[in-house]
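Ticket #4471: structure output looks truncated?

Reporter: J.K.
Steps to reproduce: submitted the chain below (342 residues) through the standard prediction queue, then opened the result file.
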Amino acid sequence: MEKYIDYAVEKILDLCRIPSPSGFTDKVIKHLENEIKSFGDVNYKISNKKSLLVDLGGEGNPLVLAAHVDTLGGVVRSIKSNGRLRLSRIGGFPENNIEAENCTVHTRDGKTYSGTIQLIHPSVHVYNDVGSLKRDDTTVEVVLDEIVKSKEDTVKLGISNGDFVSFDPRTIYTESGFIKSRHLDDKASAGILLSLIKLFTEREIKPSRKVYILFTTYEEVGHGGSSFIPEDTQEMISVDMGAVGDDLDTDEYVVSVCAKDSGGPYDYEVTTNLINTAKENELKYAVDIYPGYGSDVEATLRAGYDIKHGLIGPGVFASHGYERTHKSGIENTFALIYNYII
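Returned output as attached by the reporter:
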């Protein structure tokens, strides 16, 4: 299986480097489509919302495994009189998580411009409130790497309100097996599911039940899993991430099984089966509660689907910031899914 773990890591790195804030995901879906086509004869389709669904085969008790490829980001809320940009957030994060980050502005006519997200009072040599200034969309702005001194200068570049802004992922893979990057939520699990498709296709493996794999594109704004779910689905598992911190058992080396999050408890039978599968295969795993978390499968439930639901994923440190996981967490998540459906 090492070949497929290495491929998963490779694809995670590739996916993290593709800009894809919610609503701006065409490029990353095209990348997935091209990879899937390279595997050979794979049955897939793409929705109007640009979610991508793969039919992995098998019969009975249909299961959907869902990961999202949309990420946090922003759009231009307004162009300031000094030519700088005010942002409107895509997804949930505090502005201090993007302060001093490089970014790219994507215009509607296909141009891109680099910039840096800075405080309006960025220099300690000039301002005495650099440490105390509240971080929000009025105090954090995009400073373009262009000679602009007025709103008119910026408009002449072709930048306008509503243009998407992606954050530099700063993707790094260390010799010690750590993956550091923005957007490991949820491109870590997307890479894992892509590698599973490759494994089942290349080795002509048939799952023990009907299995679909779904890549969604609006999870970070709450409605990624609300549509494009096969009508025969009986069970759905969000393959997302496990959070690291405080009294939680999850770390970057394990697969996390979530028992409850902000939407309430996950299905008892599904969660128990996932835990038992991890135990039987001697995987490194943790069971945790994430009160500040929501997942694609909850959007599916709110849309009215009558399904059992679960949530798993590799442990990710500093979620919705500059995130980090480890190859071991990828491997344990891959193994849990494989053994759950084989």
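Triage note (M.O.): checked the attachment and the full token line is present. The radius of gyration is 21 Å.
Status: closed, working as intended.
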